Amino acid sequence: MKKLINDPADVVDEMLDGMVAAHPDRVRRLDDTKVLVREDAPVDGKVGVVSGGGSGHEPTHAGYLGQGMLDGAAAGEVFTSPTADELGEMIAAADGGEGVLCVVKNYEGDVMNFDTAAEMAAMEGDTDVEQVVVNDDVAVEDSTYTSGRRGVCGTILVHKVAGAMADRGGDIDEVKRVAEKAIDRVGTMGTALTSCVTPEKGEPTFDLGDDEIELGIGIHGEPGVERTEQMPADDVAEELTGAVLDDLDPEGEVVTIVNGMGGTPLMELYVVNRRVQELVDDAGLETWDAWVGDYMTSLDMAGCSVTVMDVDDELKELLAHDADTIALKR
Fold first, then answer.
1. What pLDDT, on the 0 to 100 scale, is given for residue 223?
2. Which three-class secondary structure state does DSSP give residue 210?
3. How many CB atoms lie within 10 A of CB 238?
4. Surface-to-core class of residue 40, CB atoms within 10 Å of its CB (0-12 exposed, 13-18 middle, 19+ buried)
């Protein structure tokens, strides 16, 4: 498989250096780490909001560094959790004196290492650290890498809500409260049309026939709920959206995301979104906001996920709050 890389062992380092080189006024890299923070971190008097996880999901997580969203983002190797030591350094760098909230996707390595980093910070006694775990994937209750549901694209909405509350001056209890509220009201389900190809392996991570798709996959290509023949975009949208709506049972207004997995043209995502919005309307719901694009990817995988969040007035205010990041602006 052809990739625009040099040595596979250097791909994450070189990606981070390239991001800083492109946005030196927005982000900086902590010395001898794979951690990026917003250029003005720590922001005095504001709760820090941080996240992190394996690389390969760009623009997640460092793409969301900036005013109104994240203060720190730690990058592990491809599909591998950052180390607890580096997470600890990120937490310290994001602490403006009001504590730090860690937004963690529900994968065993991420949860374990964030737990360790929070314990280290507590032992040092200088930083008030709280944590929320995002588990928005409605496809499976347990998976290869998780106990409970996986954390996937709904995490971006949690970043947005928590980051907005922190930017508005909320204390750490308020920031954690709205993050948990967002987690309780969001669901996601995804599909793969092709496998992804990791830089080191250089070949598909799982076998998928030319006429097959996988429903309910994770962002690392973990198996889903069903492998089936390829189907039209409308049918895919119905499978994904129906599963999320059945799980959430939302009322009133919703935010939707049709998220690309890294190898899907925007044209196709808009085709899916067309049917998603019809299904939302058919369910008696109103779309308050619709996002379409690559928000949490799986390298070069072709496919998409559908996210729905049931929103109230508070969540709408926070989602509408100004954000100025590399990958998302409001």
1. 77
2. coil
3. 17
4. middle
Cβ–Cβ < 8 Å for 19, 62 = yes
- Nearest partner of 157 among 287, 303, 307, 55, judged by Cα: 307
Arch. (CATH architecture) of 186-312: 2-Layer Sandwich (3.30)
Q: Which amino acid is at 122?
A: A
CATH of domain 11-185+320-325: 3.40.50.10440
The structure tokens listed for 162 are: 């928590």
Q: Mark whether 220 is an active-site residue.
A: yes
Q: What is the mean pLDDT of the chain?
A: 95
Give residue-wise pLDDT tens across range 145-163. Answer: 667 899 999 999 999 999 9
Give tens-digit pLDDT for 101-134.
Answer: 999 999 999 999 999 999 998 888 778 999 999 9
Q: Is there a common fold for 11-185+320-325 and 186-312?
A: no
Q: Report how far residue 303's alpha carbon sits from residue 31's, in angstroms, rounded to the nearest whole number.
A: 36
Choice among 23, 61, 159, 220 that is catalytic: 220
AA letter at 215: L
State percent of the chain over pLDDT 90. 88
Return the amino acid letter for 285.
L
Q: What is the pLDDT of residue 176?
A: 98
